[in-house]
Amino acid sequence: MKREHVKAVFFDLDHTLWDFERNSALAFQTVFSTYNINVLLDDFLKVYIPVNLRYWKLFRDEKITRQQLRYGRFRETFDTLKYNISDEVIGLVGQEYVDRLPDYNHLYDGALEILDYLKPRYSLHIITNGFKEIQASKIKNANIAHYFTTVTNSDIAGCKKPNPLIYEFALKAANADKSTSIMIGDCIEADVQGALDFGLDAIYFNEARNTVPGHISQVYHLTELKNFL
Q1: Range(s) of the chain covered by CATH 3.40.50.1000
Q2: Which is the CATH superfamily of the domain at 8-18+106-227?
Q3: From CA 222, how far away is CA 226, in angstroms rounded?
Q4: N or C: which end of the chain has fewer CB within 10 A?
């Protein structure tokens, strides 16, 4: 159903516009080569991806610190793979990975097409739980900064999605009203239900084709947003 009332569109960044898993794999490939990590990348990613998602949920829920996130996800992954690696090298690998991640900037298929379509019609904004410097580099290096009027991240907002305060912060920064705004993201809990609970309309980017409750609007490809906006 067309959202005729919408004036401002808020996007999540990672896993929504910016192809996190693809770019992450490329960054790891570089880092493993640099530090001579003798693990098959596919074997590493099979373990790391779900571990990383779990650690990010703990971080989002304020149960671990940034440092615990960055160390724990690697320590648990290497331990699961029974790969012997020191805490010192984990620290180096973790920092190198974070530094290299913005060097790779593949976007999801249809991302530029939908941004080109939306830009003349709406004010566009980003709300991300990612770290300020890294997210800024991703946006800049992917050449999409000019699409967005504001970028709200958890560092400057002082809270993370789905905390309603981050949506409040983003709306104020964008000079937008929640009744004429919409949130688009890949995480049901953080992006979609968090927005809906706040009273902000939302659309789920369901590239993985997960089963979702019937009340949630969803698209499988970004260009399908034209059906709503």
Answers
A1: 8-18+106-227
A2: HAD superfamily/HAD-like (3.40.50.1000)
A3: 8
A4: N
Percentage, residues of the chain above pLDDT 90: 99
Rounded to 5°, angle at Cα 160 from 144 and 118 = 30
How do 123-128 and 150-153 pair as beta strands? parallel
What is 20-103's CATH topology?
DNA polymerase; domain 1 (1.10.150)
Domain with CATH 1.10.150.240 in the chain: 20-103
pLDDT value of position 166: 97
Task: Kindly state the tokens that stand for 22.
Answer: 């693809």
pTM: 0.94
Nearest to 8 by CA among 210, 137, 148: 148
What pLDDT does 1 receive?
83
